[in-house]
## 1
Amino acid sequence: MRDAFEYDVAIVGGGPAGSSTALHLVRREGIRPARVVVLDKARFPRDKPCAGAVSQLGLDVLSAVGVAVTVPSAVMKGVRVLLGDVAGETVEPMGVVVRRTEFDAELLETARRDGVHVRDGEGLRAIRRADGRRAGFTLETSLGQEVRARFVAAADGAGSTTRKLLGVREPDRKGHLYVLDTERRGTDVGIDRGLVDFDLSILADGLEGYYWDFPTMLDGRLQVSRGIYHANLTRPDAPSGESVKDVLARALARRGIDIAKVRLRPFSTRPFVPRSTGWVKGVVLVGEAYGIDQTTGEGIAQAIEMGRVAAAHLAGALASGNPRFEAYEREVRTSTTGRHLLQSAWMARRVYAPLGQPARRFLVRSERARAAAIRWYRGERLSTATQLRLGLGLAASLFA
Ligand SMILES: Cc1cc2nc3c(=O)[nH]c(=O)nc-3n(C[C@H](O)[C@H](O)[C@H](O)COP(=O)(O)OP(=O)(O)OC[C@H]3O[C@@H](n4cnc5c(N)ncnc54)[C@H](O)[C@@H]3O)c2cc1C
């Protein structure tokens, strides 16, 4: 019966979530590579607009299955948090900044070399459930081909076609981003030292997010990835669309960059929130198709770890035949990434609220707070003692 399907698992999307799912199915769960197919509508290497900051957590998950990142990267040696004229700096490693075109192509190529059937340039167009009691799907591709698989991993990102075709509802409003790359300028004092800048000053313009300057290796040279993230929470007075661009224009102007002279496109991100759905019968949602960090708008490392968890549950379903993935959803929520994502959804509504001003000031002024934030960013669990000290520090800052 198993061979009524060409594939055990069809993975829709060959970004970090899809590649990680494939690599973990093969390298950790022992699924035969030829029983796994990755469909991606783009031909790789493909362009992926992104700042490319990968937290150490994602690198560690890849390294545990023998995948090393060899593409050019800039090490994130620490952070500067900016608020008006004040800057708080902490030097402590966080991960690397990659170019997504290269990083994603390397991961997908590793899966291909492992024997996974990678069909890039062939997107999902329609999906039908197999008849009868057994789980299974027929996927119709953009090349007019049919792919039959027992289970599906939807790893097709913020615009997930799989979600739309299966009618999975959106749990929350999407975030807005703009990204661009430029040469280094005199104002980029942290970039040469490998520091990433998070500028919270844009909250004064009514935005719920930050402006960033990250070091990035582009064309063999250290350059700067810049951009803006607006979490687009439910505040009715918060700006959206064009006005996010206006705020970006002002942030760039402060750095001597004329927005009219750079090429820009808006992008959106799907947040991971407590109401997020991780599965429907026979299908797991992985990476941004499920949801990403609402405070930072980041999701590469999270996608990589979700791929690890998804692979374990897909392998379990292949063994048991059970198409229900409640346990997957539970494990994602209790994994390092899931806890991080849920904390982040909670935090976004507080840190970016007008009442979050003391927390933002605390982050800029307190070395301890930034060091804890970096450890949290790397996926480390903060001890109760650290949380207590942070709580006391924050309380003290209310009266400062
Ligand atoms: C401007 C911007 C800056 C960002 N900066 C950062 C950052 O610095 N750090 C960070 O961690 N995160 C960042 N993010 C978020 C990050 O890009 C995503 O969280 C990450 O790409 C999620 O990985 P994924 O594999 O789930 O999805 P994706 O990387 O989006 O991959 C999805 C894949 O699915 C394919 N696909 C789509 N539709 C179909 C279809 N119908 N059939 C087949 N394939 C399909 C796409 O071609 C794509 O290759 C940023 C996002 C944006 C927009």
Note: The radius of gyration is 21 Å.
## 2
Amino acid sequence: MAVRRSKPESRVMPRVRRTLTELGYVEGVDFLYEVEIRYGTGRLYADAVLYDGDVPLAVIEAEGHASALRTGFEEARLKAVAFHPEDPVPLLWVAAGKQNQCYLAQSPEHQLGVRYAPVEVPPERLFHPDALLASIQAYLQRQGAASGAELRYREQLYQAFHQLAGDAHQRCQQVVNALTPAPGAKPPRRQPKPLKAITQLLTSATRSGSNFELAYALRWLMRPYFRPATKGKQNPVRQLGRYLTPMEVIRLVVDAVDPQPNETVLDLACGTGGFLLQTARRLIERHSTSPQAIAANLYGYDYDSTCVRLAQASLALGLGIEFSNLPHMRQWNSLQPPSADAFDIVISNPPAGEIPQEMLPENWELPIAVPNLYEAVFLVRAVQLARAGGRIGLILPEGLLAGARFRRLRQWLVEQAHVRKVISLPRRLFPFTPSKMSAILMEKRSDSSRGRGALFAALEGTISAVG
Ligand SMILES: C[S@@+](CC[C@H](N)C(=O)[O-])C[C@H]1O[C@@H](n2cnc3c(N)ncnc32)[C@H](O)[C@@H]1O
């Protein structure tokens, strides 16, 4: 089917964007524009789609005039069905001129085919996270997006989060600071009520045992911290290449490296701690490993201290242990030459972008504008940090795996490790990165060469001097 690829309606889309942003959804994470939907041999393009992870929740159509409401509905409906013919996207929002009309899919048991009924509630109420989760809970569970318990926790956390003062980053930081104060920081004398509600929910849960649903709900709540709050390159999110790794990518990598009890696992750019959290869950579910034994073997490094503490808090919730019982989570610049190099497993989604100048170790001279150099250095560091025979799972841009500039790096890599699998990931999974990403799975060779010059050897020609 040939379908015109039209630009989203330029007068109406800003209104949609404003509504979604005010409701706390994060552009590029929770909603995307001009989403391609494959339909048989053809392609359709939705003006915008609201997601939960990679599960589409709502198709949004923008039309220039109120008179196009009906056409907009037909288009949105077609796209919702094209996404998932067996279980179509449950919510439609047609924004036509100044008008809005939302539609909800009717429960499939009662009729053949798919029927959408108009909802007489404006989008700012229907799309409010609480109302949204309640109206499409059954769909989310069918899609495996989140368990019922996780959804309930999200609702509770979000209700309080929404009432916190400050922008989305400041709210995230308030939550993390309340859970695990920054080193040297004095705990505030009085906590605002909503913050108290969040900490009470989270801390009381650690006393009642392992709770991965709550840990995932906290990770969900912290999404805005991984999205730039301002435009342009001069903001910490872009500078640190900080973006969330989708849970389905994390699962793929963790399943592939298959952590065993007593193995040490490192994520050298741990962010929310997603890879370590999934490792912990798998060890409990598959091997009944005790939370304490798991905690003793998990290592998470991140340059950003809020991320380290967030990862620590998520793991503590997941494992049902005190935050302080995770001894190896640390604020660290992983560009530094490693001081230890014997991890059984190294898994990570390295930062993307240009390496910030102030982060470079003293004696480095890097042409910092080389694309993918950040990821290249992390790849070398990950290989250095694994023990001989250890498994390595990384998310890397294809430029690194196929581009001419990194030929020497790949040569070095196959001398150091057996590359077991390269899995190409769909483009839409990482909305902020123009690069196509892949998961690469390796096993470090037992005869791999050690030594401080490894980075230079790997990146010879790309960099001129490193320690
Ligand atoms: C792509 S994110 C990882 C996201 C993580 N996998 C998750 O889903 O939560 C990359 C992380 O690397 C961190 N980072 C950037 N530069 C770093 C450095 N030099 N050393 C350690 N961590 C760094 C960022 O703060 C960010 O949290």
Note: Residues 61 and 80 are 11 Å apart (CA to CA).
